[in-house]
Amino acid sequence: MSKDHCLYCFDSLVAHFEGRPVHEPAFENSPFPLFVTWSTVHRRDEEDLILRGCIGNFSAMPLHSGLKEYALVSAFKDGRFPPIVKKELPTLVCGVSLLIEFEKGTDYLDWEIGIHGIWIEFKDNSGKKRTATYLPEIAKEQGWTKQKTVDSLLRKGGYRGTITDEFLQAIILTRYQSQKARVSYNEYIATRS
């Protein structure tokens, strides 16, 4: 994992705004499950970020096409946020997470905060299978316990019913880790000058 992945996501976004093709990157094109996260800097503190989009894929994709695709999908199609606009570029920070070390959990609490991301499968009130995920850093950044994280993830995944012990025991949990890098727009511009 390197910052080059984030720089390529910025290249893809800038090329989109400028209406031109993006140049192929020099880094390896190995397949990985991946997520691209866009945030904006809050009050000039690059540690105080506001989420603007985060979408990825659990199916391994070649890095060149996967990063290009998800740089744009997370910028423009995360339904939780309005699409990113060109004037936001100077405030943006890009994070790329390459997902690794997938393991089935023995139950919904079989994971470690700050180490594992979690992907859960469950059935909603109508019996429809649903899934949801949080990347490894989410629970730690939010200051959540494991229980609070799972409860929040169920709501994120669309579950609106009562969360009982019996319901929690029926969750199928997969834990994973990620290799993550982050680059601000200022860092991006410095490498492209």
TrEMBL record:
Pfam families: AMMECR1
Signal peptide extent: none
Gene3D superfamilies registered for this protein in UniProt: Hypothetical protein ph0010, domain 1
PROSITE patterns: AMMECR1
Domain AMMECR1, residue spans: 1-192
InterPro entries linked to this entry: AMMECR1, AMMECR1_dom_sf, AMMECR1_domain, AMMECR1_N
NCBIfam families, alphabetized: TIGR00296 family protein
Protein name: AMME syndrome candidate gene 1 protein
Organism: Entomortierella parvispora
